[in-house]
Amino acid sequence: MAYNLSQLNQTGMPPLLQGIENITQWEEKLAGIRRTWLEYIGELPQREPVKLQVRSQSKQSGHTRLHVAYDTVYGDTVTAYLLVPEAQAPGPAGYPAMLALHPTHELGKDDIAMSSGRKNRIYALELVERGYVVLVPDALTAGERIYPDKPAFNSGPFYEQHPGWSTVAKNITDHMQGMDVLCTLDYVNPSAIGAIGHSFGGYNSYFLAGIDKRVKAVVSSCGFSPFTGDPYPAHWSYRNYPYTHIPKISADLAIDQIPFEFHEIAALCAPVPFFNYAAQADTIFPHWKAVAEGMLELSRLYGWLGKADRFRSYLGDGGHDFPAEIRMLAYAFLDDWLKQ
What we know:
two-stranded antiparallel ribbon
């Protein structure tokens, strides 16, 4: 169902449960949301068999860091770090694990997995210190996957190769390949894998969790950005530079329409445990009131599903950040659901 964006800007986020009286009706609505989402982002092709190459490894304080690469679709390769804890022993079924997705930064995985990463961004490193196996991939256009002679987050070459696809579907596919890798490691508990990210990594985390049900908990920091109230909704559409997410959405925005709202995409995760953080002084996603409305709708959905304890949403007064006190709350949330 298409929405008029100007109307939503006046009336607020569309209710998730409007007209829904039973679980069958909700499942039918959810199936429609998923169909529309895939229609706009494009295919999720059959993935490549797991082929993990260890390029190097080094002993760090309390963990081993492996520099790895693995195949993904259409002849591409994902570069990543695999962080394996040493200070803690695995549980009977193996270690809990996390797919840690980086924000928009040219360093990619190094920004969140190295002690040299930016302040409040080294969540991959902090998670391995808490006893998680952590896979930290470079997203396409970042880290070791920047196109030759192009700046980071230039998606132009991708669309030259795949004009009918989207980087959103590409990232989901690559991250599902990462889930495949984690599930093949004999020291990982395949039933205790989560996804976490900030900003670009935040929305990629819940995009993944909405498609791949092997994700058993998701944390998104400053990554929920609805069209409603957004002073720059074209963030999601075609852009000549730096990065294009969903080219097909451009035609809709040109006629003041949107085919979905992002709390509906987040609802694809339910009832997977979901932790969200947003901030009122966020200058990247400044429409915090609409963000809060979307989170309230998700909270109502989880409650209606009888899973209210699986949803946590925090709204702070800071900027586009992942502050320490919020990270500690997020890690405790992950421990509750992945270390049971």
